[in-house]
User: What shape does this take?
Amino acid sequence: MAPSLIVSEAELAAAELAAAELAAAGRSPDLHLIDLRPREQFDAGHIPGAVHADAMLLSKTEPPVGGLLPDAAVVTELLQAAGVNAGGHVVAIDTGAATAAARLVWVLHAFGINAVSWLDGGMAAWHAAGGALDSGPVTPVRGDITLSLDGANVIDASTLLTRLADDTLRIVDTRSRAEYLGDDVRSAFGGHVPGALHADWIELLQADGRLKPRGDLADYFKSLGLAPDQDIVVYCQTHQRSSVTYVVLKALGYERVLGLDGAWSAWGNRADLPKERGAPPQAHT
Assistant: This one.
């Protein structure tokens, strides 16, 4: 059975065992573990079978805008170099309490690849559970996957502008409260997208970097007035932090979740787009 969207370290270990059994029987396991930590951390110790990939390739920059969806050719090369084959299942791994693995999930979804999982708690959780480790560089056999843009989970700033009055749309700002209020300004303009709710991504995590219990997360988003039948746009500064919120919402059954391409670095650097400052609006009920 393929792993779910969010997997624990125990579930990943079980999936790895099943993949090893398939490989021993001469069948392709089609499980691809992609570790997005810095190279030196990967070489010092990684999950057996994992390969390294550069998380910087998951974002395109067109100054002053960062965090844009990368081109298909870039993502195809990243996956092929990591040994990913068509029909394989990718497990995205980072340090834990981080954003790179969730960003990979969002990027792959944008290119129509839904067979992808996010390791809850990342390598910190794997270490805490006493998981096995390998060390040193890994050179995988090149994969054969090719990608083309689907884009169903992506929205750009100009399109979002046309939907600000849409009652079926909810916008969620996952940055810090200071960024949301406009006190911490990281683009040409501070503040937030008009009507955006505030839900700091860090509130989704426990102290050890794992997600809070599923029921607590469901209650949290319900308290914001979010419903699974709505279109929900999430953003932060460059859609890194908001990628974690994206993954959690998708795992909770919110089907129509979109990442704002370029996030606040796209919206907040355009003088023609409206901004708000101050406290969040009352949650929709």
